């Protein structure tokens, strides 16, 4: 009974702190922080969501329904390559479009970080599977701390929570969740530093 309860909590945690939902929340929080009006915040949020989230998750839904990948979370390593590639292409398009239309530097920086992460993770995925859940939550926490200050440090507790959930569900090893979190946070810090935002 206790094992079943742990699995349910882990599954619920993975679903609530899914990369899609985390991305949506972070985009909205950043857009409202770095723009001067509600209109601008909503405009840039919609643009970022359209460029970076909708294409990737639409493709994942299609691939799941056509049985070309095992599940929405893509637990089989070899099935992840095409999704990493699409994410990289979407981020690349965003990197070209956002500066041209005068997007706030913070929003450009997160897309550049997304592009770099997609390339790095795709290369690693050729021989090893790392946790995208912990990567997204660690990157998001890092971005929020950089943007909002230490008041956002309370979100750090989400990183070990997500890591535990992925290990409990036996989708990743401790090394895989730790590597995903570390690399994602490192990429965010490096990119934001280069943009002069740290």
- The secondary-structure class comes to mainly alpha
Report on the biggest sheet.
none
Low-confidence runs of at least 5 consecutive residues: none
Task: Report the end-to-end length measured between terminal Cα atoms.
Answer: 47 Å
Q: Which range does the strand content fall in?
A: under 5%
- C-alpha-based Rg, rounded: 16 Å
Average pLDDT level: 93
Oligomer: single chain
Topology, number of strands: 0
Helix content: over 70%
What's the number of helices?
Answer: 8
Pattern of helices and strands = HHHHHHHH
What is the 3D shape?
A: globular
Q: Could you describe the 3D structure shown?
A:
With 198 residues, the protein is mainly alpha-helical. It has eight helices and no strands. The chain has helices spanning 2-16, 19-34, 38-65, 81-100, 105-124, 132-148, 158-168, 174-194.
Question: Features of this protein?
Answer:
198 residues; mainly alpha; 8 helices; 0% strand
Please give the structural blueprint:
Blueprint lengths: L1 H15 L2 H16 L3 H28 L15 H20 L4 H20 L7 H17 L9 H11 L5 H21 L4
Helix pairs in contact: 1-7, 2-3, 2-6, 3-4, 4-5, 5-8, 6-7, 6-8, 7-8
């Amino acid at each position: 009974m206790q094992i079943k309860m742990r699995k349910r909590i882990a599954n619920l945690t993975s679903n609530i702190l899914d990369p899609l939902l985390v991305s949506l929340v972070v985009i909205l929080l950043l857009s409202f922080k770095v723009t001067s009006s509600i209109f601008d915040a909503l405009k840039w949020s919609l643009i970022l969501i359209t460029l970076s989230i909708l294409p990737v998750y639409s493709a994942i839904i299609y691939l799941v329904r056509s049985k070309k990948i095992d599940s929405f979370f893509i637990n089989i390593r070899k099935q992840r390559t095409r999704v990493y590639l699409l994410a990289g292409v979407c981020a690349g398009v965003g990197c070209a479009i956002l500066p041209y239309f005068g997007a706030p530097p913070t929003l450009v920086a997160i897309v550049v970080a997304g592009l770099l992460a997609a390339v790095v993770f795709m290369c690693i995925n050729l021989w090893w599977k790392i946790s995208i859940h912990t990567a997204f939550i660690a990157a998001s926490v890092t971005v929020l701390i950089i943007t909002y200050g230490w008041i956002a440090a309370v979100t750090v507790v989400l990183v070990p929570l997500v890591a535990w959930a992925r290990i409990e569900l036996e989708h990743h090893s401790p090394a895989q969740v730790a590597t995903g979190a570390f690399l994602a946070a490192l990429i965010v810090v490096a990119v934001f530093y280069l943009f002069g935002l740290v």
